[in-house]
Amino acid sequence: MSASRRLPPLSLTNEDRTYLTQLARSRSARHTEVIRAQMLQAIADRLQMARNAVRRCVGKALALGPRQALKDLPRPGRPRQITPEARAWIVSLACQKPKDLGLAPEFWSESLLAQYMREHAVAAGHPSAQWVQQGTISKLLAEHELHPHRMTYYLQRRDPEFDAKMVQVLHVYQPVEFTFDDHGQPTVRWSSDEKPGIQAFGTTAPDRAPQPATGQGTWQRDHESVRHGTVSLLAGIDLATGEILGLVRPRHRSAEFVEFLPALDQKYPTGVKIQIILDNHSAHTSRETRAYLATVPNRFDFVFTPKHASWLNLIEVFFAKLSKQLLKGIRVNSTDELADRMLAYIDWLNQDPVPFRWRWTPKDVEDAHVI
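RE: above sequence
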């Protein structure tokens, strides 16, 4: 609108003046509407507003009325520039790995995906995406609930007999008391496994005790540590009593497992069958293990969990407790000290053993239609 063009006078009714006066003094109305009401009541110099802003506001008031001049006119909005085909292409790329497209990273970041779009959109036949920015990528991924920079884990079933083996294990967990089998032979039930590679960490400087007088309320430890090696814990738990049997050795081979079995054998009189839940580690079925079992016929009964189903073995509950209560933050001077402290921990638990109970039964499996 030309500055030299004279606008016709704006006439206000008494009702309009009352409305504008109230709005101009309002403390709760939108700020832009208050300012425009003031502009329509006073001259631009008094409000120190740009003349063009006053002219536009007055022009809207002349054309639409003073009340409509207070509001923003509807805008058509900027048309979407990225075509539906290009958007689908972006989503499909987000569902692929960058390394499969010749890039080094394993997963996308939003900035990397946007950069790839800009570099390859034209060649891929989607020129509308050649100027895409990270913010657009972020909104598009959010629309489809995609998070290509994140990783979650799942467990692949690799055992075709998974369900049958699971039910067999659950049947063992049910009669956890001292019972007799179908042949009248007394049976005890154990859960056993190995925890290998337990690190023996040591300190390079003494730990500092809390000192309330100085405001130091925690233990302090030097950030450096030294490694003394690793040990493996072979352990079993009596499902009826909660008693734990442990054996610590530098490695976990068939030789160590065969050493663990006689220790378990010595706990019970002849004639008692020892049923053990085990995973599918090769040491449990090795030639050395079978040779030992041949020397004690009808003494041990191995029940194997399905492959990749260590969560079905109750000894894992003990291992988790061991890690949380003892191994987390432990510092020792040698692997022998680490072994002694783990065995001392087991002795401490055995002073008041807690029987473990597995609440998921074969009947629950059938009801859930797992098998």
